[in-house]
Amino acid sequence: MTATSPLAAEAATPARISVQGVTKTYNLAGKEFFALDNVSLDVADNEFITVVGPSGCGKSTLMNVLAGLDKPTSGQAVVDGKVVSGPGPERGVIFQQYALFPWLTVRKNVEFGLKTAGLGAKERREKAEHFIEMVGLSQFADALPKMLSGGMKQRCAIARAYAVDPTILLMDEPFGALDALTRVKLQEQLLDTWSQEKRTVVFITHDVDEAVYLANRVVVMAARPGRIFDVIDVDLPYPRTEEMRLSPEFTALRNRVWHSVYHQNTRTAAGSTPSTLTA
Ligand SMILES: Nc1ncnc2c1ncn2[C@@H]1O[C@H](COP(=O)(O)OP(=O)(O)OP(=O)(O)O)[C@@H](O)[C@H]1O
Ligand SMILES: [Mg+2]
Which residue numbers delimit the ABC transporter domain (predicted)? Predict the structure, then answer.
């Protein structure tokens, strides 16, 4: 295991997000269970990180720590040089369970964060309209979440997160419930926004293809204990294109990530795999 001093890392490249030795344990039938075990990761400003790994390896736990919704048992998450102690307006979160307010319409859900941010009614309405259209829900702007399908709820949650314009996007399987076409469309929109307006993105997915297509780096996690198993640089240029998905370079990267995720048991013990990563 390579130990990297957080201070040394900071001096080299000031990380926008720095996860420093984060451990999260739960009590499971009287035994300590490591949802995350000493996870360290630096994400540079404007970097696009995707996180893949088997179910239960701690991806959402890591996201919740970054979002400030869950406290680590030890270690810390640092954003813009400050230890995360709660949610903040610079971090937009899209949850795995698209957490909409059930009593508010699509439009009101999307407007919600804008109201908190102090925008006037007209501006809220216009902004919400734009993002509702972007995710293809204009026809359902006045519908309540219970009238939406899973994929539509997910799109509403995406519109709500994008609308407040956060500079950090924390996305937990945001496109998981979408059909292939909508998924590709939203991947492209996300990359467009990211390249035009620059965001720092941490994006969890089960889809290896998606992980490679979007990212600067793919972080592969492993379970029991939840840890970073591998990190793979994606040296493909942006803009990423549909043709690129068919290229030998893309295929080689996808196979590498796939191998890392699905053949974790064939690798050597956790102690000899990288669990500390630096941008
Ligand atoms: N509140 C909790 N109490 C006890 N155990 C928990 C709690 N939250 C998470 N865990 C455990 O921590 C581990 C990691 O959970 P987490 O939700 O982070 O996994 P994940 O990688 O996001 O999985 P998935 O891909 O299925 O979403 C799991 O084994 C889970 O059972
Ligand atoms: Mg999860």
Answer: 17-248
**Neighbouring C-beta atoms of residue 232, cutoff 10 Å:** 19
d(CA 229, CA 227) in angstroms, rounded, equals: 6
Q: Is 167 helix (H, G, I), strand (E, B) or coil?
A: coil
Asked if pLDDT for residue 1 goes beyond 70, the answer is no
pLDDT digits (tens, 9 = 90+) for 79-131: 999 999 999 989 999 988 778 999 999 999 999 989 888 889 999 999 999 99
How much distance in Å is there from the Cα of 148 to the middle of ligand 2? 22
CA pair distance 203, 28, nearest whole angstrom: 28
Lowest pLDDT segment from 22-26, 143-147, 246-250, 261-265: 261-265
Q: Does domain 6-86+216-277 correspond to CATH entry 3.40.50? A: yes
The closest ligand to the CA of 35 turns out to be: 1
DSSP sequence for 242-270: TGGGGSHHHHHHHHHHHHHHHTGGGSPPG
Strand ranges (DSSP E) for 59-109? 74-79, 82-83, 91-94
Q: Torsions phi, psi of 168, nearest 5? A: -120, 130
The one-letter amino acid code at 262 reads Y
Domain ranges of the chain: 6-86+216-277
How high is the pLDDT of residue 12?
56
How far apart (Å, rounded) are the C-alpha atoms in residues 203 and 219? Answer: 10
Q: Which residues line ligand 1 (CB under 6 A)?
A: 26, 35, 53, 55-61, 96, 226
Query: Where does the pLDDT of residue 10 fall: very low under 50, low under 70, confident under 90, or very high at 90 and above?
Result: very low
